[in-house]
Amino acid sequence: MSKILFTLHASVFAFLFLFCTYGQNDARSKKIIDDMTARIKTYPCLSVSFSGTLNMPQDQAETKEGKIWLKNNMYKVEVPDFVMYFDGSKLYQYQPEVKEVYVSKPDPADNNEDFQFLNPQSIFNIPSKSFKSNLVKESVLNNRKVYEIDLYPVQIKTAKYSRIRIMVEKSTLQMVYLKAFMTDGTQYAITFKPYEIIQPALRDSFFTFNTLEYPGVEMIDLTF
Fold first, then answer.
1. I want to staple 79 with a disulfide (CB 3.0 to 4.6 A). Which of 65, 66, 208, 224 is the partner?
2. In the chain, which stretches have pLDDT less than 50?
3. Count H helices, E strands: the chain?
4. What share of the chain is helix, strand, coil (3-state, %, to 5)?
5. Domain 3-221 belongs to what architecture?
6. What torsion do the CA atoms of 46, 108, 2, 71 make, to the nearest 10 degrees?
7. pTM of the predicted model, to two decimals?
8. 201: number of Cβ within 10 Å
């Protein structure tokens, strides 16, 4: 199993970039998504714990726990066998098992697909114009009252997803749950705990890989 799955699986992030940008949304679901995106931009810094599960046809499901930290355009994602930092300029992908960290310098303005595949910001800052959406119902998950919203690809023939279900808490507009249904039968499910708003915000250095904290690690620089 790819380690990237449990950094909030890379292909899940990518759904925003596989959908046509001219989808039609029902008005209520669009407003919920727009309000959720606007709300998270007001937080100076936050952390979110999550549980990710991969279900593949004819294979046993696997689940791992992890945590995300977000500040402006910076982030850190940590799971037991993978740590990723983005300091706004450089992306650090650290694999403890082999004691290697890969350093790259993507340009977010390019909508670089590889960079966006790894970017957890995409999960919490969803542009509602990028897909068709539908408010399915209101329900309760883990004692949290939520809106259940389905997202659909416009170009069905080329999309890797048939549907993505998200759940947004009514009172806080926080993402509670996301489940992606792949066209090959694979399913990814991510459950988020309530956000922790961090004030004062973490220092920018928190989002940079510090070699002093990881002695003996080989740094593989891909920035040139």
1. 66
2. 1-23, 112-117
3. 5, 13
4. 20, 40, 40
5. Clam (2.50)
6. -10
7. 0.81
8. 14
